[in-house]
Amino acid sequence: MKRVVCVFLLCLWEGGFLHAQTLEDVDSGSLLDIDAFGDIDSLFEEKTPPAGVDTQTETPAKPAVTPQPAAPAPKSAAAVASNFKKKGFSLSASYSFTGGFFPGWDEAPWYWDEYPAEQTSLPAAIMTSSMGLNYQISDTFGVRSTFSFSFPRFAIAVDSFYLDYSINNKVFLRAGKFSYNWGISRDFSFANLLSLVPTNSQRGRGTYYVKENKDGKIERVERYTHSGKNDAYTARLSIPIGIGGLEFVLIARDDFFGETNIQRELIHWGGKYNFALKKVDINAGFMYSEVMPLHVAVSAKTTILNTEVYAESLAAIGKSDLIEGEEITDWVNSKGESQTVPWKPHIRERRWDSFAFSGSIGVGRDFFSKKLAVGAEYFYNGESDLQWMTESDIEKGLTSKTRELIKGNNLALNLSFRPGWRDLRFAVKFLYGIDDNTMTLVPGIRVVPFPNMAVSLGVLMALGDREGYYYRNNTDEKGRPFSVALAITFSGSHRWDNYR
After folding, report:
1. CATH numbers and ranges of domains, the chain
2. Which end of the chain has fewer CB atoms within 10 angstroms, the N or the C?
3. How many other CB atoms are there within 10 angstroms of residue 140's CB atom?
4. What span, in angstroms and rounded, lies between the C-alpha atoms of 92 and 134?
5. In angstroms, what CA-CA distances link 355 with 55, 130, 296, 379?
6. Pairing between strand 331-332 and 307-324?
7. What is the pTM of this model?
8. Residue 110 burial (CB count, 10 A)
């Protein structure tokens, strides 16, 4: 089965860089992590996967030069079953060596007169290897696993480890540690319901619950002991039906596997149906958990006069409130010791009287024999508590850092030009938050002078109001609103197949 499920390998091949590097939060000191590239990688993203890559493999939506729809759900059981026909295994390996230099300032140059800026010039280097094993044990059972190692941070990560199982060639199960995407937006992944995570207020961090111990005494329990991780363990059932496909998803995230009890509030579950019509591709899905609103998303994409048009909407219905109970003064701690310091327990109450709407519409088109690609999108976020896993973490299902989504009205513009010489590419990414007059502008250039070598240069700029979203949440790892990224990458990959 010629198939690469190693998302790491796919991203490396597509972008010429290492997209997903946040294996863990490590203080790199004066040696800057390659994550400082921010959105530079996505500027040079390929529109289509390389030859031999199975387009049915789930890959996340990333900011792209031209919006490209994800592979539609299989139209028949036979299409899905083709993943199970051959027995054997494949082994893939990829390597990347990147060195870079990142000068930057803690204030943008246009503010220097009022706010003198500190300049920092930081080197960056990272060496990464990734190994992937696909083992098709029988016609109905397959196992996929990938892991990676990076130096000099000595970070080892299990990027994916999951099984594929066919039930009578009609229902297809995937379970384990893997990542995929439901949304189609290329600049604002608000409707990727699989990446949404609860905020601290929704989770109830710092609140206490009542528990009666074996002696019948009231014990105070801090139910949520969030460690800052969002590892996702997922079970998905795919059922090809008619012209589309039905999916059911169950996600256990955020320390669900606790030491003492099952935290059911950290389970997310949902479903989606894909209508793969001749003229338009439609997806409708929902996601629910006890600590978040019910989210319902609907998206559609089509092609009109050689222009791709897509639209996406998200409704947040109801919310889960934490309600304070009566004050308790006679209680015991987890060690059974009597305490008298008063506190109030909390109970969780589901209310359905709130509603918030978010939506986007985007277009993308190629010109001059696909040398020039243009993509634009408008996005409105009407939900106040909307937080999702960052792009690189979504790609690999890694320990996650999260980010709030910018509120209100927003615009995005992506341009890419390929003159056709040594894979030379010019690209520009522009994001604009209209309501708070804040912007991100990232122009870049990449060239491949020799095989397995790429040279890239980008300028990461945060524009507009200093208190605005993009100025405070800029793409630089050190939080510098104006920086330059220069890097040279040597990379390569290989795959060995042994199928009967």
Report:
1. 7-499 (2.40.160.10)
2. C
3. 16
4. 9
5. 36, 44, 11, 18
6. unpaired
7. 0.79
8. 11
Amino acid in the structure at residue 95: Y
Contact 297, 284 (CB under 8 A): yes
Question: For each of the chain's 500 residues, which pLDDT tens digit applies?
Answer: 333 223 222 232 233 222 222 222 223 233 333 344 444 555 565 433 322 223 233 322 222 223 333 333 333 444 455 556 578 999 999 999 999 888 999 999 999 988 999 999 888 888 989 999 999 999 899 999 999 888 887 778 888 899 999 998 899 999 998 878 888 888 888 888 988 888 878 887 778 888 888 888 888 877 665 565 667 789 999 999 888 899 999 998 766 665 555 667 778 999 999 999 989 999 999 999 988 999 999 999 999 999 999 999 999 999 888 888 888 988 888 788 888 888 888 888 889 999 999 999 999 999 998 899 999 999 999 998 888 876 555 554 445 567 788 899 999 999 999 998 878 999 999 999 999 999 999 999 999 999 999 999 999 999 999 999 999 888 777 889 999 989 999 999 999 999 87
Retrieve residue 78's tokens. Answer: 């036979």
How far is the CA of 247 from the CAs of 192, 241, 267, 272, in angstroms? Answer: 14, 10, 17, 5
Provide the token pair at 442.
């990232």
Strands 408-417 and 218-221, bridge-based pairing: unpaired
Place of tokens 């690189």: 392
| φ and ψ at residue 23, rounded to 5 degrees | -70, -30
Helix, strand, coil fractions of the chain, as percent rounded to 5: 10, 50, 40
Structure tokens at 218: 């009231």
Q: Which of 389, 418, 326 is nearest to 196 (CA)?
A: 389
- Region at 84 (left for phi over 0; alpha for psi -120 to 50; beta for the rest): alpha
* Residue 357: partners with Cβ closer than 8 Å, 6 or more residues away: 313, 314, 315, 316, 380, 382, 383
Q: Give DSSP secondary structure letters for 20-45.
A: ---SS----TTSB-GGGGTTHHHHT-
Nearest CA-CA partner of 109 in 482, 484, 486, 485: 482
Distance between CA atoms of residues 42 and 21, nearest Å: 14
**CB-CB contact of 6 with 159 (8 Å):** yes
Q: Is 330 helix (H, G, I), strand (E, B) or coil?
A: coil
Q: Are 331 and 221 in contact (CB under 8 A)?
A: no
Q: Is the peptide bond before 451 cis (omega within 30 degrees of 0)?
A: no
What distance in Å separates the CA atoms of residue 179 and residue 165, rounded to the nearest whole number? Answer: 17
Residue with tokens 């978010």: 358
Strands (E), 168-215: 171-177, 209-212
E strand segments, 110-227: 119-136, 141-151, 155-167, 171-177, 209-212, 218-221
